[in-house]
Description:
Number of strands: 3
Radius of gyration: 24 Å
CATH superfamily of the largest domain: MetI-like
Strand order of the largest sheet: 2-1-3
Number of domains: 2
CATH class of the largest domain: Mainly Alpha
Structural class: mainly alpha
CATH topology of the largest domain: MetI-like fold
Number of helices: 14
Largest sheet: 3 strands, antiparallel
Helix content: 55-70%
Order of helices and strands: HHEEHHEHHHHHHHHHH
CATH architecture of the largest domain: Orthogonal Bundle
Amino acid sequence: MVGLCVVAVLFLVAFLSPILANEQPILCRFDGGFYYPAVVDLIHQVPGTSLIIQKQRPYRLATFDFKREFDPERGDWALWTPVRYGPREIAAEPLAGPSSRHWLGTDQSGRDVLSRMVHGTVVSMKVGFLSMGIAVILGLVLGCIAGYAGGAADLVISRFIEVVMCFPPFFLILAVLAWFPPSIENVMIVIGLTRWVGIARFARGEILRIRETDYALAARSLGVRPAQLVLRHLLPNALAPVLVSVTFGIAVSILIEAGLSWLGFGVQPPDASWGTILRSGYENLFTAGHMIPPACVAIFLAVLSFNLVGDTLRYVIDPRLQAERA
Length: 326
């Protein structure tokens, strides 16, 4: 339950990041008009909404600074976000320590660390879920083919899985990323293309077991097509162990992304991620060590919470574990 609560908080922080940490207000009155720039940023996180709701001027002009143009005598007012700084905004002196204005201090460029921590949650959640989404698709397809078809297909796919598993995942990811420019998209794709082997093995084993059950044999005797049999009858019953593997995989993906960003192969400044914050703290260890603890705590809590959720799922799904604890 604790792990699930932490995961829910991470989701909320990631989704609500535009109204939690932003250099623009949630709602404001400026020069006689009402605007809601941070809310528009929040809505634009949903794909396709940018075509429906356009960002209002002047809040998207690069030269406009609402904090300087704000004039109370003109009747202007604003409802600000809890953290009044954007993740890329140069808000104060570089490497400033924690204060009442900057609760976690600033980095080497003068950007607010707390704002970057909030928006770094978005990167971690995206990498964790989208990379495992790629891994699930690839792993289920190959695992189902190997488990149901058997024969040469099973032999080739199984040997390919074993070859991929021979390489340490992190170093394999580093080797692949060396050929591509560092970006969050490339990180997600490469992690997904290297984390599918465990899912494929689980799917193959479950399909091998289920395909010989009575209802699967009855469906084949009735002339059900192989694709329909796998998709409608076998695969749904094989997803339980896969879901557990995916939950643990999300935790590993978050940790890998942080490591890649720390090494300079992942998210690049000025974009925010927990790994880049950790790197900034390491580079200024003796002058700005205040950046290291928040990033370490965030990574630790995220990885621990997803592992706890995975353990809970495994306990709920596996009746043998329930019998042992009974």
